[in-house]
């Protein structure tokens, strides 16, 4: 029985053990001391590097009493499966094993399974004593009996308190003011912002609160002399408070004007607007803005340890300041002053993600790494920045913790630690083979371990196991590209005779098709040509033309053969077209959709989205924590490639591959790069670019805008939102505050969502709805939002292509009646949005919405409905049909009259619907 580990996003059990990587006992002991766990409660075992290398690579600590306390922070925690098998806490094991089976499988006292090292067994006799790790100095014979005891230490300071004033003392101080105003009393007060304004408003508010606590007059009771005097005093206090508020308003007005006249000088008087951290208390308000110098990004000033003075800005002034900050930050990025731009985004706006991005652009990698690590909790990005900074020793532990052992090995190579690097690479090979990724394992053998023999053997194994077989065999033949034509030809024949089963003949022809693309070699491969002759002749007997064109590829100089093949192909296509025409007449008359093509996908994966891009089919799927892309040229050549790690079970990964922006391909995912991305780009063409769409919790949507720019829509800590523009490499370009038509920040109350919302960009505008909100939003490229009220709360939206009149459909749901759904239809006209229909049809909640030319496709479970959306008028249903499986996604097919459906059971179906839209 083969046991397999699967990475999970959450702990699968309590921490029974911990692993301390490295070989430094001082690090081990200091880490154990930081846990505050009694060392007598731990069993300690020295872990070897591998079965062949017995040098210690780390320490395994097993808790004797059961599990580590939950508050102990363990870098590598392990859970106990069965009675004695220790596996990573963030992993599960398959298949499931019963208690009796564990008794037969587990033979040691402890079985430790490390993803990079493998399985290690320990008996309790193998335990190591922690005191054996200590080196004691040699005792000396000096006499220490003459030592004198020192002076008695002073008692420890245990408490500081303030002696409170009595009520009599307070009123005595108030009476001593006499008839002078508080404004006059404070006329000669210090001008420092932390003394003058703070002292004034603190005193005024304190006195006002004290006076408000006076007992109220009872009915019939008259006000005494003291009461009248206190009323007068309270009026003066309130007047002074109002004066101070006016002073603060004047300061903000001066600041806003200064931003127009001298933005750099204004920035020195700026006040923070947002912060993801709460301050430690509220600082006494000040009536003056202090001058800051210098203006520089500072990691130490980002925490929430200090009290804050909240100026209580109204919405208009807050928005104006926010926009000024972003405008200056955009200018600083354009000028190359990245530290000042990072200061604005981090210290003034609390946008740590954009600040880190800007610091990266300015090559301030160390501070960007600390920002990612400590404040954004994004270790993957932090490790990448440490690597760019040359701090390999800081990046390696993070990569190891993230499971990116290959990158750790690459950094070990840069540090000339070859043995450590090979250990990591070997662990990566074993991990790749455990998930049946033979392409990646072969790549590691070839490029990292420099073992071509193992690489070729692994690729042939991938071919036999039908795991990316075409790619595996093509890369196997790449090893023979430097050989002579005769040797290469013999290898092609040998593989065909020894490694190709009858059911693999068609797949092998796809491999030969790739070989035939080599113009220098294809005419001198007689043995490969014979294979093509044999296979094509069998296809022709069965009236198939799938590989007839390969005759021209392998016999390029025989013009007579090319002409015969062309005539034969034309005649057969004519006969087939006549048959299709006869069959289509009945189908058109009955208005039924025709299944054009069916592609099965791997059933062990969950497939979620599909697109046609560069004339190829792309499908996004997931298996466990791994993301996959299925690529097909729609001619029988298809593969699936691992492309990274998913965002977790509660967050949906999104595929961005739009026909109108065919130079883009991207997936929202974790930042760890995967070699499979290169394989996908090779299949789809060199013109395709990979979009950097690293997910972070503040992001609401990603939207491709053009060939060079992507929009990132984010939520700020105060509830406002910001529109960022980044390039295809993920670098920050500019930002602007999202506002309504009055210039106030647009607040979206329902944006506390795990998943990204669907947002589309058409002709200078972003269109989107927020599930549960009764608005359609249109936002221009400067971030100004116009809202259109809906009849019912929205649940999803679809929009037509750029090359047609923009039409938009929003599906709605009645909050009072969970079974009532409807559809509202809009059309762009004269720069605005016009409602053409309210609830043009009611029904159940749809799963997919898709515009196809003038048509609209709506799916519900396995039902498909087709509507005509005329230039003027209300949409009307023109056809409906059923599939056997539930539909997960609907997308445009390879031709104008075809629609593709991705089904729940792992199939892609292409239907001809042009006849239905006549």
TrEMBL record:
Keywords attached to this entry: Coiled coil
InterPro entries: bpX3, TPR-like_helical_dom_sf
Residue ranges annotated for the MoxR-vWA-beta-propeller ternary system domain, each copy included: 2-175
Segment forming the signal sequence: none
Pfam family, one: bpX3
Coiled coil ranges: 230-261
Name of the protein in question: MoxR-vWA-beta-propeller ternary system domain-containing protein
Species the sequence originates in: Haliscomenobacter hydrossis (strain ATCC 27775 / DSM 1100 / LMG 10767 / O)
Source species taxonomy: Bacteria, Pseudomonadati, Bacteroidota, Saprospiria, Saprospirales
């Amino acid at each position: 029985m083969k046991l397999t580990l699967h990475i999970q996003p959450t702990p699968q059990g309590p921490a029974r053990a911990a692993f301390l990587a490295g070989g430094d006992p001082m690090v081990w002991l200091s880490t154990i001391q930081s846990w505050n766990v009694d060392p007598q409660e731990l069993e300690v075992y020295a872990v070897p590097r591998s079965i062949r290398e017995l040098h210690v690579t780390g320490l395994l600590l097993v808790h004797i009493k059961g599990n580590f306390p939950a508050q102990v922070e363990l870098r590598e925690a392990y859970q106990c499966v069965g009675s004695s098998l220790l596996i990573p806490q963030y992993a599960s094991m398959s298949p499931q094993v019963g208690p009796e089976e564990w008794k037969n499988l587990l033979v040691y006292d402890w079985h430790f399974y490390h993803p990079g090292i493998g399985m290690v067994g320990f008996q309790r006799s193998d335990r190591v004593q922690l005191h054996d790790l200590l080196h004691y100095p040699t005792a000396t014979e000096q006499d220490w009996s003459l030592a004198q005891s020192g002076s008695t230490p002073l008692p420890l300071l245990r408490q500081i308190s303030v002696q409170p004033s009595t009520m009599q003392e307070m009123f005595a101080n108030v009476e001593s003011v006499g008839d002078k105003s508080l404004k006059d009393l404070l006329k000669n007060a210090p001008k420092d912002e932390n003394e003058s304004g703070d002292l004034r408003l603190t005193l005024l508010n304190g006195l006002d609160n004290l006076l408000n606590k006076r007992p109220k007059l009872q009915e019939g009771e008259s006000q005494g002399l003291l009461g009248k005097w206190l009323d007068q005093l309270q009026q003066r206090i309130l007047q002074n408070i109002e004066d101070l508020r006016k002073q603060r308003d004047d300061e903000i007005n001066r600041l806003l004007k200064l931003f127009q006249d001298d933005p750099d000088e204004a920035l020195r008087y700026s006040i923070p607007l947002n912060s993801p951290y709460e301050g430690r208390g509220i600082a006494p308000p000040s009536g003056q803005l202090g001058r800051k110098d210098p203006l520089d990004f500072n990691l130490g000033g980002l925490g929430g340890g200090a009290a804050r003075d909240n100026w209580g800005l109204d919405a208009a002034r807050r928005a104006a300041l926010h926009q000024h900050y972003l405008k200056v930050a955009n200018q600083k990025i354009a000028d190359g002053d990245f530290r000042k731009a990072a200061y604005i985004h981090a210290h003034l706006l609390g946008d740590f993600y954009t600040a880190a991005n800007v610091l990266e652009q300015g090559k301030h990698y160390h501070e960007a790494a600390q920002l990612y690590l400590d404040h954004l909790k994004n270790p993957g990005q932090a490790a990448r920045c440490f690597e760019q900074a040359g701090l390999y020793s800081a990046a390696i532990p993070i990569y190891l913790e993230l499971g990116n052992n290959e990158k750790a090995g690459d950094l070990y190579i840069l540090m000339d630690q070859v043995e450590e690097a090979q250990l990591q690479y070997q662990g990566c090979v074993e991990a790749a083979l455990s998930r049946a990724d033979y392409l990646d394992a072969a790549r590691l053998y070839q490029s990292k371990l420099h073992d071509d023999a193992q690489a070729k053997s692994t690729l042939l194994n991938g071919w036999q196991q039908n795991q990316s077989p075409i790619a595996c065999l093509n890369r196997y033949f790449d090893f023979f590209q430097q050989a002579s034509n005769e040797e290469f030809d013999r290898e092609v024949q040998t593989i065909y005779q020894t490694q190709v089963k009858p059911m693999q003949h068609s797949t092998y022809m796809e491999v030969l098709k790739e070989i035939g693309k080599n113009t220098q070699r294809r005419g001198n491969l007689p043995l490969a040509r014979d294979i093509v002759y044999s296979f094509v002749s069998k296809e022709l007997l069965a009236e198939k033309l799938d590989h007839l064109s390969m005759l021209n590829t392998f016999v390029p100089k025989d013009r007579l053969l090319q002409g015969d093949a062309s005539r034969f192909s034309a005649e057969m296509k004519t006969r087939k077209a006549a048959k299709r025409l006869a069959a289509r007449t009945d189908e058109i008359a009955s208005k039924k959709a025709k299944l054009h093509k069916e592609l099965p996908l791997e059933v062990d994966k969950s497939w979620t989205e599909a697109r046609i891009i560069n004339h190829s089919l792309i499908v996004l799927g997931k298996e466990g924590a791994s993301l996959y892309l299925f690529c097909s040229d729609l001619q029988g050549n298809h593969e699936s490639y691992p492309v990274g790690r998913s965002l977790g079970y509660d967050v949906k990964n999104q595929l961005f591959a739009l026909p109108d922006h065919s130079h883009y391909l991207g997936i929202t995912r974790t930042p760890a790069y995967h070699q499979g991305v290169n394989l996908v780009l090779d299949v789809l063409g060199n013109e395709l670019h990979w979009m950097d769409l690293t997910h972070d919790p503040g992001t609401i949507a990603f939207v491709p805008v053009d060939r060079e720019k992507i929009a990132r829509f984010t939520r700020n800590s105060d509830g406002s939102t910001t529109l960022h523009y980044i390039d295809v490499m993920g670098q920050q370009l500019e930002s602007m505050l999202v506002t309504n038509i009055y210039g106030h920040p647009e607040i979206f109350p329902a944006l506390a969502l795990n998943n990204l919302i669907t947002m589309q960009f058409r002709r200078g505008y972003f269109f989107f709805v927020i599930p549960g909100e009764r608005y359609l939003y249109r936002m221009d490229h400067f971030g100004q939002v116009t809202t259109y009220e809906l009849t019912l709360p929205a649940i999803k939206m679809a929009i037509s292509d750029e090359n047609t009149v923009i039409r938009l459909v929003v599906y709605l749901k009645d909050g009072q009646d969970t079974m009532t759904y409807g559809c509202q239809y809009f059309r762009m006209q004269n720069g605005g949005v016009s409602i053409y229909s309210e609830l043009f049809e009611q029904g159940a909640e749809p799963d997919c919405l898709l515009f196809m030319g003038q048509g609209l496709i709506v799916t519900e479970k396995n039902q498909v409905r087709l509507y005509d959306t005329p230039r003027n008028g209300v949409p009307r249903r023109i056809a409906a049909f059923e599939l056997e499986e539930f539909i997960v996604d609907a997308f445009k097919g390879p031709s104008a009259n075809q629609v593709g459906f991705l089904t729940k059971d792992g199939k892609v179906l292409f239907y001809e619907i042009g006849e239905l839209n006549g």
